[in-house]
């Protein structure tokens, strides 16, 4: 019998600790497949900071450099400048990249640092109990916004990818999701393209991934997947926000 589906070589044989229905597990596999298909395992370095994926080094069979909370872009900058022949990527949640790590990320994009960021947006602080995050949408219930986020009290959610697309040093910015087979395929294409952008030395690249968090959203996995399509994408529209390559063949 022909095997058509197997574990990526760049993923270790360790069980994920993520909650049922979480998008991190799907995204880890996607990244592992891209690393294998691009033959990057020996030259790629991942940088996870604090958050749900703080233990990513337990799962990826590649070199990893753990960053302090919010400082992944700073660490990735140092690694890439010291080792310019390596592929470097950060793996960050919305509570990390859009709050304590905002300054590092915006300035890395402004400088055109030649690394890739994978930004996992589930709209809450997943690891610490589901508190309101910078990307929590208006009206969304969290443990620190009971009754829903209100603009007068809590401010508006941050559309970080749109902000980064304005930076002159950013080369490729796309927002995708992992709540359906079609969106998973698009996410894989986006990450592949982001790594190609880095290989070409074009500057900062980022893929934002809308990811379900059923436990903290108080939903079933199926409800969480639908909520991304019906609610979340209204505030965070999917698609390419910036692409300086002019390469239309990979457009989705």
Give the count of helical stretches. 9
* Cα separation of the termini: 33 Å
CATH topology label of one domain: Rossmann fold
- Write the element-wise H/E pattern from the N-terminal end onward: HEEHEHHEEEHHEHEHHE
Give the total of beta strands.
9
- What's the overall geometry? globular
Instruction: Provide the β-strand percentage band.
Output: 15-25%
Oligomer: single chain
Would you identify the CATH H-level superfamily of one domain? Thiamin diphosphate (ThDP)-binding fold, Pyr/PP domains
What keyword list fits this structure?
17% strand; two-stranded antiparallel sheet; alpha/beta; Rossmann fold; 7-stranded mixed sheet; 252 residues; globular
Structure description:
This protein has helices spanning 23-37, 72-82, 94-100, 102-111, 151-154, 160-166, 181-199, 214-217, 221-235; strands at 44-47, 63-64, 87-93, 116-121, 124-125, 131-132, 170-177, 204-210, 239-243. The relative contact order is 0.15. It has 252 residues and is of the alpha/beta class. It has a domain at 23-129 and 159-211 and 237-243: 3-Layer(aba) Sandwich (Rossmann fold), CATH 3.40.50. The model has no long low-confidence stretch (mean pLDDT 94). Helix 1 packs across helix 7 and helix 3 (94-100) packs across helix 4. Strands 2-1-3-4-8-7-9 form a seven-stranded mixed β-sheet, with helices on both faces. Strands 5-6 form a two-stranded antiparallel ribbon. The longest helix has 19 residues, at 181-199.
